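User: Here's a chain of 216 residues. Predict its fold as tokens.
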Amino acid sequence: MAYTRGSSANIIVGAAALFTYEPAGGAVELTDADLPDLVAGTSYKDTLEDDADFRNVGYTMNGLEIVFQPDFGEVQVDQLLDVARLYKQGMQVNLNTAFAESTLENLLFALAGKDADYSATGTSGEFGDGNPTMDMTAGDIGEVPVERGIVAVGPGSGAADAGLERIYAAFRALSIENVTVSAKRDEPTMYEVSFRLLPNDNASYGKIVDRTIANS
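Assistant: Prediction complete.
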């Protein structure tokens, strides 16, 4: 086989559309069964847009970044100056982005808040009546952060003329980092957020799928 330097078709450039899994019953972790089926000839972005259980967070800034952080232990022996063996003893995965659409729904998502903390119409007879309102609650001692599923769809890799996309699905995502809300003269208001991804009972954080749209 002749030597080739590489394939430019495998270079991915472009932003991803980000969706959160928010079924009517409240925020829960995402499973394989909750993901809509692929439809031949239809981008998965359109499939998710038509599914009432998924909400598009809209514009993002600084793209989408998934960081895998393995933790390895070391075995040292007397006869070697370096370690003789490494073994995996931990794993952490984070998904980082920034919500450019500073809606209260996105703020609730970024803060891992409860669905009950947000109302599209406010509370009858109280301040905020008729207006979208989010309660800035402290929560309770020992309260567990709310987990939500995340699905992102961006450009894929490979040489094909039928359309390519890469689908990222995270089953359990929760925000445990600081979130800043600002109102500044020379900067847009956006929510920079880092989601910690947790594995499900099958030790899976989710999946990444490279898809040819016309062939699915």
